[in-house]
Amino acid sequence: LQAVEQSERKLISQGSTIIGISNESIKDFCIVADFMGRHGFIRLNGEAVCSFSDGVYKSTTHQAKLVQVEEALLETSLGSEIGNQLYKIICSIVHHAESQKFGCTLIIDLNKESENIVGQNLFPALDLTEDCHLELAMSLAKVDGALHIGQDLKLHAFACLLDGRSIPGEDRARGARYNSALRFTHEHKNILVVVVSSDRPISIIQEGVEISAQCQWNPVSACHIGMTTLESFIEG
User: Do both 39 and 122 map to the same domain?
Assistant: First the structure.
């Protein structure tokens, strides 16, 4: 295992013993155990079938499920095609940050005219539907500050500063990225901020609050009506 760790090399086995080491792509039918550190994936001809960890096979992808982002985009005036492309771009950057174990912040600007945010502006903006530009955005996500992505599917700036005045609901235990996102979205409309932390769940923030995929409504099983006395009823 040490001979192939952190490299493109592969251990080759016929099912019972290791028969060699190769760095060539395998074109024929093959089953691959892809170790990712604490977990791994079983792949059939390159397609992930399941994951494994601690000797147990699981169906989880070990990637964040950005349900809140998907729901927030569905509530906008973006068409389904643009919304779907934007969602895929966000997922690609977030999952890359997860796999590389670094924190980052994405500003998803849903305004028709992109906000002017302090940062390293790009002219022209990078079209993130192109793979080479998306890969560059993944690398720029490591830089301190946030990526500014518009509804036009372009990266307008990186290393952006999220400023704003202090608001109720801040949590110092969640760190600077989280609280800066709360302040920024409280003062800027039609902005969605995705905060990726290296040691905490991903936070989706809009209008100064963290949105959740869980319904916070607690249904009441009974109807409570104030009782009226006979005396007050007669008196009208």
Answer: no
